[in-house]
Amino acid sequence: MVFYFCKHHTRNNMKLAEALQERADINRNIEQLKNRLSNNVLVQEGEKTAEDPGKLKQELDASIERLAHLISCINATNCAARVNGQTLTELIAKKDALSLKISIYKDVAYAGSQTSYRARNTEIKIKPTIAVKDWQAEIDRMAKELRLLDNTLQQSNWNTELMEA
Questions:
Q1: Does residue 8 form part of some domain?
Q2: Which own/partner pairs from 54-59 qualify as long-range (CB within 8 Å, at least 24 positions apart)?
Q3: Which of 26, 77, 86, 110 could be disulfide-bonded to 90 (CB atoms 3.0-4.6 Å)?
């Protein structure tokens, strides 16, 4: 169950981490409401729906309105809050880019480590064009950097007051 503090505002002293958790809860709730609405828009003639689509629609609209407000507050907070001279928005972008880079590097290292077996010595030899060991070492270094960055963001989320947008 999602707790709404009020229609347009967040409660006083709400931490960014709490807002992020509420946003996740609201997103799950919206998905459930969508499914419940879909299950209650058609009914056999003479029967009644299990739930009132009108009430479900009102709940969906309120949830979406609250989500929009939270996203606004989260974005405003992320743009204003600073950690080690960088905004949270910059740190999140750095984390996302690093995650993407790690994913691609892992795929490349995996492709480079594939061995090709030959039945006879006259067949074509397939050899890697990269030093897989070096790529893996860089992946490991980036993974550590990502963990530390994530820890910094998590700590900041619990120490940062949510701003009103």
A1: no
A2: 59/33
A3: 86
Q: Does 87 share its domain with 109?
A: yes
Cβ partners under 8 Å of residue 31, min gap 6: none
Structure-model confidence comparison of residues 4 and 51, the more confident one = 51
Q: How many separate helices (H) and strands (E) can be counted in the chain?
A: 4, 2
Helix (H) or strand (E) holding 114: none
* Token duo for residue 68: 């929009």
Please indicate, yes or no, if residue 5 is contained in any of the structural domains.
no
Residue 87 structural domain = 83-159
3 state SS of 125: coil
Burial (Cβ within 10 Å: 0-12, 13-18, ≥19) of residue 20: middle
Q: What would the mean pLDDT of 42-65 be, rounded to a whole number? A: 96
For residue range 74-125, list pLDDT tens digits in order: 999 999 999 999 999 999 999 999 999 999 999 999 999 987 665 666 677 7
Three-class SS state of 51: coil
* Alpha carbons 163 and 15: distance in angstroms, whole number: 9
